[in-house]
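Write out this protein's structure.
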Amino acid sequence: MRRLFWKEWQERRIWIAIWLLTGMVTTALGKGQDVCDIGWMGSSWMNIIPLMALLTGLGGYGSELRGGRATFLYSRAVTWKQILAAKLLLGLAVVAVSVLLNAAAGYLFLPAEYHHLITLHGVLSGAYLVGGLSALAFVLGLAGSLVLPGLAGGLLVVVGWVVIMNVLALFGRSESLFGPILLLLAPLVGGFLLARFGVTLHGMARVRRFALIVLAFAAVGAALDYTPPAAYLYKKLNSQVGAGPESYYNVLFSPDARYVYLERSINRQLIPCLVRLSDGWFSFIDSSSYENRWLENGAFLTMKSAHRTVGKPDTEELHLWQWQGQNLRSIQIKNAGSLGINYHALSPDGRRLLLGESNQLLLCDLTTGKTRTPAKASETKLRILYRREPNKIHGLLWCWWQTNDEIGYLDPFTKKRVLVPLPALSEP
């Protein structure tokens, strides 16, 4: 058994190294395995880790299916169970090592101010999610490798299985329960049966048997979905989703990890609020805001549509929320017009905010909400520029602070840096 395990390691060690390295790098960048329950760490980039597990599993039976090596192995004192166990044990061992290394990378590269948010629950939740998906992906890859040899062959089998799932989803019952479950089990059962009876068969014979198993499971699942018990179970399970008294969505932590924005689900309605983590104090804010962002000084910027006059386009209202001692204070940024919050720069002292738009820069005093326009661009020239280069973004969008008393921006026409000294906002 030890020799079989060593053989598997020698054959798969390069893919295993890529798998482990991918998990550590994505987690270190904040896009992989979660180590604490904060909203911004969740990312679709996490799916790269199970993808590497799938690719590692796809080569599992490649050596046995080439050159009659399976017949040679079975001629020795080796059983199919030992071969399958060696491959599965190696994959599960790599899954365990991967989640541990990912958690270590997440802790080491997470900013120090967030370390107090790392809890055992957060680490285990991230490990269970990534570990479970990686283990499932590896086993699916291993099942695919039993049908056609090599990475390309196994990948072709997995793609065919995914196509079957999508075709049945299009033409099957929308409220399906047993169909997806049986389709997920089909390659696992097919792979197990091929590991027991089909390793020494011809390639097309394995393909026919595997396809027959998948289609049989799909047919049984589709038939069960039309039975009354399936409809009852589907409604029962879906009625329990979100039935808890309260849930949280769209969680955004402040840069200093002292405050958090979240949307609380109360009676199936999402209500946004700001929470102070030191004592749990919270305050509800305007639910009509649709774009929110934390500034580097711990202030929270929200944007919502303001309905003005019938027949005229809506404009945006910018509101700033910031703590002053134990109180939460809100001010409206005046004369914001149609400004968004995607292009902004905070002054080094945290007292003023520079907002960029297509045709103007807006400078805002964060203590009073007063604004002025330090730079404007010709709308006529901008329209001409958009006609010449319609696929590019133009305007006074890229701005920054040189010092507390000087700003800079990129001229939209000359593409040169421009520096502007600023007088105090309180001056007329």
